[in-house]
Design goal:
Distance between the termini: 31 Å
Structural class: alpha+beta
Radius of gyration: 13 Å
Number of domains: 1
Shape: elongated
Strand order of the largest sheet: 1-2-5-3-4
Low-confidence stretches: 1-6
Strand content: 25-35%
Length: about 80
């Protein structure tokens, strides 16, 4: 697991914290980003995190980003298609 400091927010990448039952608080799609913020936790899909990233980073104490799982699924699907 690799830890990076970005804008004074600890961002942990390549974790297995989120699963298919975790849903984006904005649209209900599968969540790939978990945010521990000032008043509680939020979950976001990749699209909504990217769309609101500046505001989210200002709010967050910690961000767990598991968008790496998106490319793993695509690679697995591509391999199965052959």
């Amino acid at each position: 697991m690799e830890t990076m400091i970005l804008n004074e927010v600890e961002e942990v990448v390549e974790t297995d914290t989120l699963n298919a039952n975790d849903r984006c608080d904005s649209c209900g799609a599968q969540a790939y980003i978990w945010v521990n913020g000032i008043t509680g936790d939020l979950l976001f899909c990749g699209h909504h995190f990217t769309k609101h990233e500046d505001k989210i980073r200002a709010y967050a104490f910690e961000i767990i980003d598991e968008r790496h799982k998106l490319s793993v699924k695509r690679e697995s699907s591509a391999a199965n298609a052959d």
